[in-house]
Amino acid sequence: MSDKPALVLVGPPAAGKSRLAKRVAKMMNLPLVDTDSMVVQEHGPIKDIFANHGEDVFRAWERAAVMTALETPGIVALGGGAVIDPATREDLRNHTVALITISPEAVEDRISGDKRPLLSGGIESWVSLMEQRSGWYEEVAGVSFDTSHRAMDTLAVEIVDWVKGAEHE
Questions:
Q1: Which secondary structure element, helix H or strand E, spans residue 64, and what is its range?
Q2: Quick check: 135 pLDDT over 70?
Q3: If pLDDT is split at 50, 70 and 90, which confidence band does 168 have?
Q4: Can you give the pLDDT at residue 86?
């Protein structure tokens, strides 16, 4: 088994990266690494990190989690803002990366009452983040899967098929 992930998922907040990563990892019988979960486990809730330490500290801890995750086998789900860091984007050039997308209409229900600090402005905040980050997501990803109107299990099968095909290219 390789010491690098079989797949890295990137994309905006609430697109379904973590849920898809869990399904894909299970289907491929691989371990799952979620960088947001790593940060939370070590430092506490992301909302509290932002409130008590600020975004810069969170991003530094996130970068450390990304570096660790990219050295582990399995399936990796990156936090929505991980691609902000140019070093992370550079690191991702050596990996199989899928972009998980969702439309503003579909994500709106998912983020209502959300505890994510950068989405306190609701759908307007989400759209603004997408405008800032979409180029970075597209820069690092080899393929895109949209979760707006499709079943997660169906998408997971398609992602596994893509990963298996990508291994032979």
A1: helix 55-69
A2: yes
A3: very low
A4: 97
Residue 44: DSSP 8-state: -
Say if pTM beats, i.e. exceeds, 0.85: yes
Sign of torsion over alpha carbons 70, 72, 78, 82:
negative
Rounded Cα distance between 12 and 127, Å, is 10
- What domains can you pick out in the chain, each with its CATH number? 7-164 (3.40.50.300)
CA distance 98 to 62: 19
Percentages helix, strand, coil for the chain, rounded to the nearest 5? 60, 10, 30
Segment 79-82 long-range contacts (CB within 8 Å, at least 24 positions apart): 79/35, 79/36, 79/39, 80/11, 80/12, 80/13, 80/14, 80/15, 80/17, 80/129, 80/133, 81/13, 81/118, 81/129, 81/133, 82/10, 82/35
pLDDT in tens, 65-112: 999 999 999 999 999 999 999 999 999 999 999 999 999 999 988 887
- Opening angle at CA 94, ends 91 and 100, nearest 5: 80
Q: Are 126 and 80 in contact (CB under 8 A)?
A: no
* Other CB atoms within 10 Å distance of the CB of residue 2: 9
Nearest residue to 30 via CA among 10, 3, 57, 50: 3
